[in-house]
Every structure is written in structure tokens, then in C-alpha cells.
Write a structure and sequence with these properties.
Radius of gyration: 33 Å
Number of strands: 16
Shape: elongated
Largest sheet: 8 strands, parallel, barrel
CATH superfamily of the largest domain: Aldolase class I
Oligomer: single chain
Number of helices: 16
CATH architecture of the largest domain: Alpha-Beta Barrel
Number of domains: 3
CATH class of the largest domain: Alpha Beta
Distance between the termini: 75 Å
CATH topology of the largest domain: TIM Barrel
Length: 490
């Protein structure tokens, strides 16, 4: 069975606090909605403002394949504005709970039905498609709700919609409600859910199983309070989990429209959001990465390509060598097993210190490991620095030189200068000159990796060396020792 999708991102979605779309932005979203196969687009609420009406007119002038609707109250003034915007139809919203009828409209059931029927008559007289949406239907008396629907259908309503306005349905209750309505309602029944209890998608899927043939959604689930039914979660769930149902949506385009709406509304997507969150197809765990590489179905319920995504392996302390090797190959690096394990170990040391390891960090770590293909005469074992406003910067170092440990100390104008002086005062360093010193922070933040590049000279020989660490002093000392080792090898 084919399920129709009405997207209300441009109306209910725009009611997200802080969101206000320009006419051009609305047109861009509407164009993409039509392109990916949305059946019905609620372009706005014509009564809202002259600017809103101009936006709706811009959309209706495009001759989209999708049916274009405007929200409308059961009032002639609202409907006239919809007619002026040249929409195909109206989402005619009529409150049906006693709470809304009594406290909001200050009327009674009989007058409410009369108001609804008159509005439907007026719409049909002007050639509009009518979808009658019962506001607060989930808290309405069932028999009265059914009476409102049947009366509207008798007056020509084309579709009806159950609105769970404050999100109080549960999946079981949703299934039962739609199944009961389906017994007596002959026109298509739609489901419009809100996410106040985090159940909008679950309730929507239950509604489909109960008999709903249309769902209302917003891109990324944006909307008032906790938002509306998530378009991407609902559509993909119908496609992957409900075998007997389908939609007209081009699922491979879902990620593109999700990112578009996030950019234009400024409502960005939490990383762990299903389908479109940045972590939805990201793997760090070594066990998971290994399984994914062997067969993606081991830890993914769908391929990322299905929804326009790409899989990624996250660099961190939980990463195993299989996922790491895959990421290194993506970066154009080939390593042997020993080098791979060393890179993995270095990443875990940094991650244990709370450092987020980026691709840039990975490249630097890998570069350093790949340079280790020789026996060095000198290695740093320990470095201690004392520095302060009233203290001469002092460094003590412990190095291994030709297999023997050597302790030494030095002072300088700063901690880096003191550390280098502590090393180069040893005899083996005395004919080596530091002729250039350069520092770059290669990643953002106060925990950035520091890349120190130096040039050393011994006689007529000049070499470059680098050290990369989160600590500038360690990076400087490692660069210096690496350069000396290179000179000694040469």
C-alpha cells in the first residue's frame, strides 16, 4: 500500500521558536520537497501576513507536481486568503476536543459541526481540495470525532486527519484509534503527530498499520515544543520496517534536504539523530569497525548510501586496528602491522588525556610513526620544566645516548629555550647549530596539536626535523632530537 506524505515544514515546522524563513528560503525548500517526491506540501498559513501570502504565491506559481495547501481555520476570511494564493487545497483545521471547543472557541459541539460544514461547503464551492484536520483529536470523544468527520465528508471533504496535538497518544492507542476510524471512514485518513513524549514517529507508524494512508511530517522533526513527526525517520522506517507499505519519496535524497533545512532554519541536528545525525553511520568501537568492514549488516540496519550518506570510522580510544587501517587507506597511507599498532597506541594515549583526535591529528601521528624506520642514537626519556614570573626557566632532561642514560639541566629565557639548552650543552651536541625554529598550531582549541619545525646545521650539512605534540615544549625537544639523530646518521 502506498502511503502519501504531507510535509508541513513550511508551516508547522516554521513555528519552531526562533525560526522565520524568507520567501526565497521557503521556495528552495519547497522545490526540494517536490523534487524528492513529497505528495502534499503545506506551504504556510495564508492568514498570517502579506509576506506569508507572497511566499505561498511564489510556490504555487511553480507548477510543482505536489499538491500545494495552506493551513486554514474554518473561517471565510482565512479561506479567501487561501483562494487568493491560488493553492490547490486547504488543511482545514477544526478543534474537536471539548477542552478546545469550550475553552478556546467558547462554543458547543453543535455549533462546531455547523462551522466546520459551512467551511467545507465554501471551500468546495471555490474548487479547493479539502483535508479536514481535527485538532486535538486524540483527546476528543470518539463518537463525536467520527460525527465531525462524517459530516465533513458528506459536505465534500476529500480527506480527514487525526491530529495528536499535544503528543499524548501511545503506539497501542494510535493503532486502535485508526483501526476504529477506518471501519466507518471511506476517504483517506491522515495522521499528524507531535513529539512531546518522543513518540511521534512510533505513533505515526502505528497509525499506518491501523489504516492511515497519509502521514504529516516535518524535515528533521522541527516544530513547536518538542517538534513534529520526523520526515526522515518515518519514511525510512516505512521503507525498511513495514514491508507491506511504501512511499513515493526518493530516499537517497533525504540527507540533502535534511542539511538544507538545517542550514536555512538554523535548527541544527543533534549528532545522534537517527538517519541524518552525523553519528548515524559513524563507528569507533574496534569490534564494530571490524564487523562493518567484513559485512556492513553486522552493525548497520541499512547502508548509508540508501539515504545519501557515507560511513565513517571515528578516531578514538575505542578504535581497533581494522577501522584505523581503513581510515588510513582513505587518507592515502599504507602501513605495516607494526606501524599500524604504533599509530593505534599513540591515538589511545591522546584520547585517554581527553583529546579529540581529528583527521589532521591522525595524519600527523601517522607521519611521525612512518618516519621511525631506523635506530636512533639519542632518545628522550624524561623532561621536567620549572618556570614562573619570578623563576628563571629551568629544565632537567634524561636522555638515552648510545644505550646509556644521561642526566643534564639548563636554563633559558623561556621553558623551550631552557629545555633545548639542557640538551645541547652535552658534548655530542656542541658542533650542532639551531638555525631556524618555526611553530604552528595545526588543530583548533587550547588542546591543539603543536607542529614544531626546526633546521639544524653541522658543518656544511643542514637538515629539517619536526615534532608534533599537544605540548609545545615536548614538541620542540622531540624535533631537536630528531634533527640531531638525522645529522648523526648522515
Amino acid at each position: 500500500m502506498n502511503i502519501k506524505v504531507l510535509d508541513t515544514t513550511l508551516r508547522d515546522g516554521e513555528q519552531t521558536p526562533g525560526v522565520s524563513l524568507t520567501s526565497m528560503e521557503k521556495l528552495r525548500i519547497a522545490n526540494k520537497l517536490d523534487e524528492i517526491g513529497i505528495d502534499y506540501i503545506e506551504a504556510g498559513s495564508a492568514i498570517t501576513s502579506s509576506g506569508e501570502r507572497e511566499s505561498i504565491k511564489e510556490i504555487t506559481s511553480q507548477n510543482f507536481r505536489a499538491e500545494i495547501l495552506s493551513f486554514s481555520r474554518p473561517l471565510t476570511v482565512d479561506i479567501d486568503y487561501c483562494i487568493d494564493c491560488d493553492v490547490d487545497g486547504v488543511n482545514l483545521v477544526v478543534p474537536t476536543s471539548d477542552l478546545h471547543i469550550r475553552d478556546k472557541l467558547k462554543t458547543n459541539r453543535e455549533d462546531l459541526i455547523r462551522l466546520s460544514n459551512d467551511a467545507v461547503d465554501y471551500c468546495k464551492d471555490h474548487g479547493l481540495v479539502v483535508e479536514l484536520s481535527a485538532e486535538d483529536a486524540s483527546r476528543s470523544d470518539f463518537d463525536f470525532l467520527k460525527t465531525v468527520y462524517q459530516s465533513a465528508i458528506d459536505h465534500g471533504a476529500d480527506r480527514v486527519c487525526v491530529c495528536d496535538t499535544v503528543g499524548i497518544l501511545t503506539p497501542d492507542a494510535s493503532l486502535e484509534l485508526f483501526a476504529r476510524l477506518k471501519e466507518d471512514i471511506d476517504v483517506p485518513i491522515a495522521c499528524h503527530c507531535h513529539n512531546d513524549f518522543g513518540l511521534a514517529v512510533a505513533n505515526t507508524l502505528s497509525a499506518v498499520k491501523g489504516g492511515a494512508s497519509e502521514i504529516h511530517t516535518t524535515i528533521n522533526g522541527i516544530g513547536e515544543r518538542a517538534g513534529n513527526t520526523s520526515f526522515e525517520e518515518s519514511v525510512v522506517s516505512i521503507d525498511r520496517l513495514l514491508d507491506e507499505f511504501s512511499t513515493n519519496v526518493k530516499i537517497s535524497e533525504i540527507y540533502d534536504i535534511s542539511k538544507l533545512v538545517a542550514r536555512l532554519t538554523g535548527v541544527y541536528i543533534q549528532p545522534n539523530k537517527a538517519i541524518v545525525g552525523e553519528n548515524a553511520f559513524a563507528h569507533e568501537s574496534g569490534i564494530h569497525s571490524d564487523g562493518i568492514i567484513k559485512n556492513s549488516a553486522t552493525y548497520e540496519p541499512m547502508t548509508p548510501e540508501l539515504v545519501g550518506r557515507k560511513r565513517k570510522f571515528v578516531i578514538g580510544k575505542h578504535m581497533g586496528t581494522h577501522g584505523l587501517n581503513s581510515r588510513l587507506k582513505e587518507l592515502g597511507m599504507d602501513v605495516d602491522e607494526g606501524q599500524l599498532q604504533q599509530i593505534c597506541d599513540n591515538i589511545k594515549v591522546l584520547a585517554d588525556k581527553g583529546k579529540t583526535v581529528t583527521d589532521v591529528d591522525l595524519q600527523v601521528i601517522a607521519d611521525n610513526v612512518l618516519e621511525i624506520n631506523h635506530e636512533d642514537r639519542i632518545s628522550l626519556e624524561d623532561l621536567t620544566i620549572v618556570s614562573g614570573n619570578k623563576v628563571m626557566p629551568t629544565a632537567s632532561v634524561k636522555i638515552t645516548m648510545d644505550g646509556e642514560q644521561v642526566l643534564n639541566a639548563g636554563v633559558g629565557l623561556g621553558p623551550v629555550d631552557a629545555a633545548i639548552n639542557a640538551i645541547k650543552s652535552l658534548d655530542i651536541f656542541k658542533d650542532i647549530d639551531l638555525i631556524e625554529y618555526h611553530v604552528d598550531a595545526i588543530t583548533g582549541g587550547t588542546d591543539a596539536f603543536i607542529d614544531v619545525i626546526i633546521k639544524l646545521q653541522k658543518g656544511d650539512k643542514v637538515v629539517s626535523a619536526r615534532g608534533t605534540e599537544p605540548d609545545i615544549i615536548n614538541a620542540s625537544v622531540k624535533a631537536y632530537i630528531a634533527g640531531v639523530n638525522r645529522l648523526l646518521r648522515d
